[in-house]
Amino acid sequence: MSKIKMVMFDLSGTTVHDDTGVRDCLHRAAVEFGLPATPDEILLHMGTNKIHLYQFLIARSQGKAGDFRDFAKGQDPATLEFATKVFHRYEEIMIQHYRTQVREVDGASDTFRWCHDHGIRVATDTGFHKAVTMAIMDGLGWLRDGLVDVSVDVQDVPGERGRPAPFMIFHAMEKLDIQSVSEVLKIGDTPADMLEGTNAGCRGVVGVLTGPRPVEAWGCYRHTHVIPSVRELPKLIETEFS
Fold it and tell me: Which of 12, 22, 192, 225 has the lowest CB atom count within 10 Å?
């Protein structure tokens, strides 16, 4: 079997430090608009398109059941206007947070360098929109310094169909001329990450324990490996994917 040629890294909780900051920003915006949602409910459904997340929460508050597995299949258009207003306020809060507090998970940059040293392209994807993504990239300098080859967010795919759909992974593969998902690993810390990697057919779907969600929240979704943090990824690749 061919060697790994691309790793798709999640951002918040996987390569970008998150001690519930993202959850708290999402929840603060919801509270400001009177949208009933608990912090734990938001935490479980993170990693997805944030407008879709708010649409889901609005529908839930109206007694309409939903499943986050279907986020990328479309939301009720009737919830879009309200969700977009909440999202824009969240985006303001989130950007300010990352402008003042962004830092990497220990070992993330070293892992990116190791990947490049071993002929593996580094891609990142996220449930964030571009403005928040670029606040992270500007703060950490990963794109500027060449540590990340391509950064993908929900606005890079048609219809902003983020996780758990596989299209951000396919977008990165196209950009980097990666021909087969058997040459791709996905690594993340949310149920949406696990489903995204599985839906894409990635050779490996790796969970990390550095995010704010306990393993019980995402471990029931299909994955191939669990490691303590992104720092341990090189060893995993050497032992399991050579």
Answer: 225
Q: Which of 16, 11, 15, 1 is nearest to 233 (CA)?
A: 15
The tokens for 60 are 């839930």
Q: Which CATH class is domain 6-19+102-240?
A: alpha beta
Mean pLDDT computed over 157-179:
94
Beta strands per DSSP E along the chain: 6-10, 121-125, 150-152, 184-188, 204-208, 225-227
What is the C-alpha separation between 152 and 128, in angstroms, rounded?
Answer: 9
What confidence category does residue 1 fall into, taking pLDDT thresholds of 50, 70 and 90?
A: low
CA dihedral 174, 179, 183, 184 (to 10 degrees): 20
Does 1.25.40 match the CATH number of domain 21-101? Answer: no
